From TrEMBL, chain A:
PROSITE patterns: ABC_TRANSPORTER_1, ABC_TRANSPORTER_2. Pfam families: ABC_tran (PF00005), oligo_HPY (PF08352). SMART domains: AAA (SM00382). One of its GO terms (molecular function) is ATP hydrolysis activity. It comes from Paenibacillus anaericanus. GO terms for biological process: peptide transport; transmembrane transport. Residues 6-251 form the ABC transporter domain. It comes from the Bacteria. This is ATP-binding cassette domain-containing protein. The lineage of its organism: Bacteria, Bacillati, Bacillota, Bacilli, Bacillales. InterPro entries: AAA+_ATPase, ABC_transp_ATP-bind, ABC_transporter-like_ATP-bd, ABC_transporter-like_CS, Oligopep_ABC_C, P-loop_NTPase.
From TrEMBL, chain B:
One of its GO terms (biological process) is transmembrane transport. Belongs to the binding-protein-dependent transport system permease family. The keyword Transport applies. GO terms for cellular component: plasma membrane. It comes from Paenibacillus anaericanus. It is a multi-pass membrane protein. Residues 114-303 form the ABC transmembrane type-1 domain. SUPFAM superfamilies: MetI-like. It comes from the Bacteria. It holds the Pfam family OppC_N. This is ABC transporter permease.
Length: 297, 316
């Protein structure tokens, strides 16, 4: 892969949960994504995946660390420059029912980004652009005047994708874009995302908890646990040769569609005796080319 | 299956293979949405229209408003001229609702009073709406310390007995229509601001707001295009239900003698005037009392109907 589009260094996001306690949702994570690459980010619910994604986009102000996008530290940008920067970085959300304003028509949902960045000269131009985008994500352009509640989950997620594409971004964070959809629709949406990546040269950070889907779409995969990255490798390598005990646990939980194998499969279950990987005193070590694992210092 | 079985199972209508036609599946057809496109507002209106009680209440309110506007115009009498030869008349063809103790026509005075009561109710509700939405919107949107300070201020204001403030204000200032409206709104907006605050706080963590932020939307766009329109349902219901509250509060103040001053009539002051001889001249109390009850009942039923229509969770 060529140069890095985005570099995240030592990103931290703590939430104040009252009485002086801090929730360390994202605790010192670093990774980089090359142009045109897809980095998968997996982990169990509540491990800080979504928070990491939102902090990278500066939807949350970070507690520490830096994010360099094409060499610019986005946390140091003024509000005006940040607004311009947002054209290059977009997000697709998890819940297609909550991520579209119910009072807006599809045209207004997709056209809003065009309005914010003054990208459409006239009403006609705006309408044309919205129809092109709908066509691009496989929706009927005649439905532009409809409201979100009239669409199915898969169609709504396509609207969400069209909205993200409206400003011609270079980088898109997909925050569990398929976890709220039917399995049959999941494949459609993932294939659409791959297709768009090939056509438009997009770079993805693909957040998910479905390991097989992540393997399908990602070039590299990062495994997150309790706010930290415990393992990061090429996806083939990670699935074939998991090194960190937490990664092994995750992979052992993937169901296999064969009752004979599934019945004999040994699952590694985390409990109080083996869930402490001494993460506070660990650091990422490159054990083989491009394969990083968290190891005790 | 044996071929003989088929003859046994064949239907009374003789179907041949030629009767069937393969139509296939058209993917474009599958995407077509049959339902008529309805905005959230039109959907709510459709549900409201199906609610007979609410529509009756709306009709009654419409009639009251029209009568309050037209009533005093169609009569040959006015609300302030005394006719001391015809005091305390019973309802008759000459005076439809009778006359009061100064011989003033009760029909004109009742509708004129309804006009004043409605003006007070609507004006107070509108001012509550204006202040409450802005104050509550700022509290809910900015949260944190701003919310803390502003919320404490409204709680302190709310803790002062409302009648005490109102009565003090009416004693210090000259009792007039604007003074009464001011007295009613000085604490009336707090309830609205709390409702708006709660709605905004709940909405601002929704993903569509986050999506708009990720596109670089400023706070004005977020608040006025995304948050407030989605909070409109509870806001409208609160306004509708605060109108009868203001009307009742005005009637109460007038009943205490702190309301509008004679010869101007309001429904409350008319009931107060009628109190002196209500055993002998019950119609002097009956008409304004019935009218104020009907107005409040209609507003409350209509407000309940609106709440049902605007709440998507109750959608059938």
């Amino acid at each position: 892969m060529s140069e890095n589009l985005i570099e995240v260094k030592g990103l931290k996001k703590y939430f104040n949960v009252g009485s002086g306690n801090m929730l360390k949702a994202v605790n010192d994570i670093s990774f980089s994504i090359a142009k045109g690459e897809t980095l998968g980010l997996v982990g169990e619910s509540g491990c800080g995946k979504s928070t990491a994604g939102r902090t990278v986009l500066r939807l949350y102000e970070p507690t520490g660390g830096s994010v360099h996008f094409e060499g610019t530290d986005i946390y140091k940008l003024s509000p005006q420059k940040m607004k311009a920067m947002r054209r290059d970085m977009q997000m697709i959300f998890q819940d297609p029912y909550a991520s579209l304003n119910p009072r807006f028509t599809v045209t207004d949902i997709i056209g809003e980004a065009l309005d914010i960045h003054n990208m459409a000269g006239s009403k006609k131009e705006r309408k044309k652009r919205v129809e092109d985008l709908l066509d691009m994500v496989g929706l009927n352009p005649d439905h532009a005047t409809r409201y979100p509640h009239e669409f199915s989950g898969g169609q709504r997620q396509r609207i969400g994708i069209a909205r993200a594409l409206a400003v011609n971004p270079k980088f898109i964070i997909c925050d569990e874009p398929i976890s709220a959809l039917d399995v049959s629709i999941q494949a459609q949406v993932v294939n659409l995302l791959k297709d768009l990546q090939n056509r438009l040269g997009l770079t993805y950070l693909f957040i998910a908890h479905d390991l097989s889907m992540v393997k399908h779409i990602s070039d590299r995969v990062a495994v997150m646990y309790l706010g930290r990255i415990v393992e990061l490798a090429e996806s083939e390598e990670l699935y074939a040769n998991p090194l960190h005990p937490y990664t092994k646990t995750l992979l052992s939980a993937i169901p296999i569609p064969d009752p004979a194998i599934e019945a004999n499969k040994k699952r590694i279950v985390l409990d109080d005796t083996n869930n402490n990987f001494n993460l506070d005193n660990s650091e990422l070590v490159e054990v083989s080319k491009g394969h990083w694992v968290s190891m005790p210092k | 299956m044996d071929t003989n079985d088929i003859t046994v199972m064949s239907s009374p209508v003789d179907l041949k293979p030629e009767d069937f036609r393969k139509i296939g599946s058209d993917e474009k057809q599958a995407e077509v949405i049959q339902r008529e496109s309805l905005s959230a507002w039109r959907d709510a209106w459709r549900r409201l229209r199906a609610n007979k009680m609410a529509m009756t209440a709306l009709g009654v309110l419409g009639l009251i408003v029209i009568a309050a506007i037209v009533g005093p115009m169609i009569s040959k009498y006015n609300y302030y001229s005394n006719d001391l030869l015809n005091t305390n008349q019973k309802p008759s063809a000459e005076h439809w609702f009778g006359t009061d103790d100064l011989g003033r026509d009760m029909f004109v005075r009742t509708w004129y009073g309804a006009r004043i009561s409605l003006i007070v109710g609507l004006a107070a509700a509108m001012i509550d709406l204006f202040i409450g939405v802005i104050y509550g919107g700022i509290m809910g949107y900015f949260g944190g310390r701003v919310d803390n300070i502003m919320n404490k201020f409204s709680e302190i204001l709310y803790a002062i007995p409302y009648l005490l403030v109102t009565i003090l204000l009416l004693v210090v200032m000259e009792p007039s229509l604007p003074t009464i409206i001011l007295a009613l709104t000085i604490t009336g907006w707090i309830n609205m601001s709390w409702i708006v605050r709660g709605e905004i706080m709940q909405l601002k963590s929704r993903e569509f707001v986050l999506a708009s932020r990720s596109m670089g939307a400023g706070w004005r766009r977020l608040l006025f295009r995304h948050l407030l329109p989605n909070a409109m349902g509870p806001i409208i219901v609160t306004v509708t239900l605060s109108v009868p509250n203001a009307i009742f509060a005005e009637a109460f103040l007038s009943f205490l003698g702190l309301g509008v001053q004679a010869p101007i009539a309001s429904l409350g002051s008319m009931i107060n005037d009628a109190l002196t001889g209500w055993l002998y001249y019950p119609w002097r109390m009956l008409f304004p009392a019935v009218l104020i009850s009907l107005t409040m009942l209609s507003f409350n039923i209509f407000g309940d109907g609106l709440r049902d229509a605007l709440d998507p969770k109750l959608k059938k």
